[in-house]
Amino acid sequence: MATQVILLERIEKLGDMGETVRVKPGYARNYLIPQRKALRATPENRAYFETQEKHLKAENEKRRKEAEKQATKLKGLKVPLIRQASEGGQLYGSVTARDIAQEVSTLSGEQVTRAMIQIHQNFKTIGLFSVEVALHPEVKVEVVVNIARTLDEAETQANTGRALITDNRGELVGQDSDEEQLESVLEDSALEARKEKQEADAAKAEEEQAKEEARALKKAEKEAAKAASAEEDEAESEEAADEEAKDA
After folding, report:
1. Residue 169 has pLDDT above 60, yes or no
2. Could you say which of 41, 56, 72 is where a domain stops?
3. Sheet holding 139-148: strands in order across?
């Protein structure tokens, strides 16, 4: 069963600040509420939000402007990450969101946290990857993560725009597009996250449909009550006319 929450900030593909939306209980309990991104949709919390709405919007605007300044320093940033890997490009380990955040912070001089790196799961191969950094719910910027075995290899990859991967004969092979690479190196949770967003959208559509049906039902009930009242008035008029005829 879905949980209703009041959003305290804009959540992509879910809603804007102040909206009441339906989400999975685990998503609300484990992420939205602990991260102070939402409140449970109770009358008390709605009243609290209404008293704090002006302050929350002012704080959000302040953070957005700061994020826009950060974005200018990150835009176009290339982030080399040196890792051990096989000739075929498979890493002996992985590159995590934390690894990327630390390197981005070092290169840009801006504070970037693991939560801002939008990859869902770890990279498992060398190559060039466009990674989105969410500095604010309304401010995102892309950086290029350059995973290589050496600095020289990273420089070559940056210059050519291709990963230095060899096949089982030791020959260089082409690199897939960013989208194809992401599909191959991100684990199933990325697909699961997309599925959850789709389910949230579907739940929201169902809620709107239920509201529309409720409005239609209410309208029909009003019309039925009005018709019944008219019939009752007509019956009373006929009865009064009969009484007058008898008296006459």
Report:
1. no
2. 72
3. 78-82, 139-148, 127-136, 117-118
